[in-house]
User: Which sequence fits this backbone?
């Protein structure tokens, strides 16, 4: 069986976007059309479905790196901040966007919080069995196209 580890990110995210756009709990807020995705950006995203793309990418990141929280996800989507004459420095992406998408993915049942044994420390978000099944099913459906585009994948 094909897992999400076997499929390149671009193909998996594109297939996840098609599925995520049909889920009614994952919708862009009204402010998403004019908000920047971080302090290192000058303008808002140009794509109309950027919220679905970011949601699919965050779901994939939670699958690979979970347990992971909103702060680390915002750092993953950061970049170099232009400080004029001074050297660039790293800037994190928007934590509000990361937190809102994580909340929407939690409401849809794809991810959940991971706690320690006593239930007092939240380690971050991890995939639920339903989210794991979804991402692996989509990876399995994309596998023939991925092998066609990247012939070396058939070795694995």
Assistant:
């Amino acid at each position: 069986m094909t897992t999400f580890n076997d499929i390149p990110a671009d193909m998996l995210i594109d297939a996840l976007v098609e599925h995520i756009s049909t889920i009614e709990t994952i919708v862009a807020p009204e402010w998403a059309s004019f908000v920047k995705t971080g302090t290192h950006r000058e303008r808002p995203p140009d794509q109309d479905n950027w919220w679905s793309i970011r949601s699919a990418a965050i779901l994939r990141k939670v699958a690979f790196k979970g347990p992971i929280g909103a702060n680390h996800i915002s750092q993953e989507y950061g970049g170099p901040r232009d400080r004029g004459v001074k050297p660039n420095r790293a800037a994190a992406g928007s934590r509000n966007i990361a937190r809102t998408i994580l909340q929407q993915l939690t409401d849809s049942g794809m991810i959940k919080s991971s706690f320690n044994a006593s239930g007092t420390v939240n380690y971050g978000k991890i995939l639920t069995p339903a989210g794991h099944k979804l991402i692996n099913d989509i990876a399995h459906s994309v596998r023939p196209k991925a092998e066609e585009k990247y012939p070396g994948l058939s070795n694995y």
In short: DSSP finds five helices and four strands in the chain. The radius of gyration is 17 Å. Residues 129-149 form the longest helix (21 residues). Helices lie at 9-20, 50-65, 70-76, 95-107, 129-149.
